[in-house]
Amino acid sequence: MALEVEWYDLVCFGIVGVAFLGALWVLWAKEGASQSDLGTLDESLLVDVVPRGRAIGHVSSIQLWTSCWRGVHPLWLLATRFLSFLITAVLLSLDVIEYDASIFLYYTEWTFTLVMIYFALGTIISAHGCWQYLNKPPFGNGEMAEFLRRDLEESKSTNSIVYKEKETKGSIRLQNQYVEEEFKQRVGFWGYLMQITYQTSAGAVILTDIVFWCIIVPFLSIAHFKLNLLMGCMHTLNAVFLLLDTALNNLPFPWFRVAYFVLWSCAYIIFQWVIHACGFTWWPYPFLELNTPWAPVWYFCLALVHIPCYGMYSLIVKAKNTILPRLFPRAFLRAY
């Protein structure tokens, strides 16, 4: 076994272990509350009609593929996500071709792949949502209430309506309800996966780009690292595409899902420990090395930096939902 365990290694294991278990506890407490309040995790993310006491982080199925801008057609969000997916897929392919599969030893490639997966999921769900929109425009809660109110008034004021007309209206409403329920069931798991991938990517992208441009480029120029155009694009466009999607999408950004970001980083660190325990000797990031008494300090700082990185993106989303409604009160729709 290539990994020799010292006392400071045990401290590092403890830091990652506490972070991992703490993240699981947060998810159990928060996502568990969503499950008890709204029935299932799929419903907490994909049901249009929300009961009283909406769970933290709830998002309806319509929010997954519609824009926060009143006049923007869902096809624009679909096009943005599809182009972002194509460009990220091309960049990642070029990266693998130039450096081979060993490039996935880096956290950057893990994060970039996660961003690509988000845009892939977003493209699929947006395409399904646009198909539903083009075949039957969705009803929001207020629109549905207004529809039912008008329908009731019309039925009261027009007693001469023939039975066949009423039967036709009833069958149309039943068909619409069936289509909505079928859509919710199909995208339930994938909608939830898309939401957590979005929030995990947000924190991971900020962490990746800050570490790369503020620490690695100026201070850690090593033999395994060489800055080029491809590397610069991957550490820039990941944030650009995600911010563009955030500017258009209608998704909430609750704080408790920072736990997924923590779990993602813990998974990467555990992966590094496993391959080094199996005989791998080179560390892609010097601050992850365990053969120094200063390792616990580095690991503790890495654990703490997740909070401001996720918080930075959370502030961007909060500013979007606070400032833009004041600047464009008739054009902007708040996600929550």
What distinguishing features does this structure have?
9 helices; 336 residues; single chain; mainly alpha
Order of helices and strands: HHHHHHHHH
Number of helices: 9
**Helix/strand-derived class?**
mainly alpha
- Could you estimate the helical fraction of the residues in percent? over 70%
Unreliable spans = 37-53, 139-172, 182-187
**What's the alpha carbon Rg, rounded to whole Å?**
24 Å
Main sheet: strands, sense, barrel: none
Give the overall form.
globular
Q: Please report the total strand number as a whole number.
A: 0
Quote the distance from N terminus to C terminus: 52 Å
Mean pLDDT: 81
**How big a fraction of the residues is strand?**
under 5%
Write the layout of secondary structure elements.
Layout: H1 7-38, H2 41-46, H3 74-99, H4 107-135, H5 141-157, H6 163-219, H7 229-248, H8 258-277, H9 295-327
Helix pairs in contact: 1-8, 1-9, 3-4, 3-7, 4-6, 6-7, 6-8, 6-9
